[in-house]
Amino acid sequence: MALGTAMDWREGLDAGDLSSESLVRGAFDRIRTLDGTLHAVLATDEARSLDLARKADRRLRAGERTPVLGLPIVLKDNLHWSGLPMTCGSRVLDGYVAPYDATVVRRLLEAGAIPIAKANLDEFAMGSSGEYSAFDPARNPWDPTRVPGGSSSGSVVAVAAGYAPLALGSDTGGSVRLPASFCNVTALRPTYGVLSRYGLTAMASSLDQVGPIAATATDLALAFGVMAGVDPMDSTSVELPHRERLADLRPLDLNGLRVGLPEEYFADGLEPGVRGLLDAALRVFEGQGARLVPVSLPHTRYAIDTYYLLCTSEVSSNLSRFDGVRYGLRSNSAASTLAGMISETRDEGLGPEVKRRILLGTFCLSRGYYDAFYLKALKARTLIAADFHAAFAQADILASPVSPGTAFPFGAKTDDPLAMYLADVFTVPTALAGLPCLSMPAGFTGGLPAGIQLIGPALSDVRLLEVARAFQSLTRHHLETPTLSA
Ligand code: GLN
């Protein structure tokens, strides 16, 4: 039972053939039927969502139109939606209720979108599979014995399983793109700064970005356009050029487009099935007159090390606020001293991956190691960004795999953190460079989907989506939906 794209629903709502209330009721029915298996959802407030839907219906009847008016949307549970609990996938936030709306959430609400659920995730968005959630992990709708990818696991599953046509995730090093590839949906990581981070729980602030998720580029452009725009509450926020083109995304003419293929991304380790899908996708570009040009990103081999040094350093600092004093869980087993209470709370409330990163990051930042690790990683980050800059002299966009393989079985990588980190080898470099990039469906291998990644120069987000739109007007992979039953 495919529920249709956001654009189908947009047209139905605008024509008066559909009501937002019926769409939202349908969404909750679907969650009730499927989520016992898929575990994508952590919290809902059905009465409130239905109330918002009825308000949207009144606005529609009064003739108001916005790109998202009346459309259901799912929010990753590290984004604040006031009045609902927010866990970030962690026990340490037990009992915490969001006291305000994230800027992106507020803008969606003002435009009449209907948040319907808070979605599962790896704890504090640290992970690549969804398995590091403190709760039952989300499952891949194409094969529930496999991971959906992370960290925005529940958000992507919600779109793939048709709970809602739109979702928000966050992408620090690949967390919307990797699950999108594993679950056959489309997801954008915008240029750093284009979407406000105010109200997104910080993991690694120099890397974190909110990312929209949907079946198609056209759909995610609807939510993206509503959320973009400078926010005084986020000092890194920047204006998105050509935002007005997002409400009705047109395909770019691919004729003459120079598509760069980073040689380091097509090397050993890429599963042959995934490679085959990429080759077929690239032929679609060529068929429209695009030119494939080899490019080199020579510092790629330092990207994983650089990312996991910088990310953990920022994690060590950002997560110090979860101390049992201000938010959520407070241990009472060692309440005799303040230090004892803080350390017991963190020990009880935080999971193993989060602890690993806090320890590694604290080590990197400590006296004597700071220069050797943190400062060195900052320098490597500059070189990685410079590689992309040079490549964009020869190419208009870059195309690459999203991940070396397809969705893996539960437990396959949890004993080996390094193997888990390597799932991100193609998604962290662009995050370090702050560039816009997206993952879109490229087909199936061994019964599982895999995506292709497109990467653009800074602030070329709109054109990148127009390229994706062109590809999706020529292919049907993104229309494939999983067969699901309760
Ligand atoms: N998998 C990467 C990590 O664990 C990326 C996570 C993310 O983008 N939030 O850090």
TrEMBL record:
Domain of life: Bacteria
Broadest EC class assigned to this enzyme: ligase
Enzyme Commission no: 6.3.5.7
InterPro entries the UniProt entry points to: Amidase, Amidase_dom, AS_sf, GatA
Active site: 76, 151, 175
Keyword terms of this UniProt record: ATP-binding, Ligase, Nucleotide-binding, Protein biosynthesis
Known catalytic reactions: L-glutamyl-tRNA(Gln) + L-glutamine + ATP + H2O = L-glutaminyl-tRNA(Gln) + L-glutamate + ADP + phosphate + H(+)
Signal peptide: none
Family, per entry: Belongs to the amidase family. GatA subfamily.
Complex and partners: Heterotrimer of A, B and C subunits.
Alphabetized HAMAP family for the sequence: GatA
Main function: Allows the formation of correctly charged Gln-tRNA(Gln) through the transamidation of misacylated Glu-tRNA(Gln) in organisms which lack glutaminyl-tRNA synthetase. The reaction takes place in the presence of glutamine and ATP through an activated gamma-phospho-Glu-tRNA(Gln).
PANTHER family: GLUTAMYL-TRNA(GLN) AMIDOTRANSFERASE SUBUNIT A, TRANSAMIDASE
Protein name, UniProt field: Glutamyl-tRNA(Gln) amidotransferase subunit A
Gene: gatA
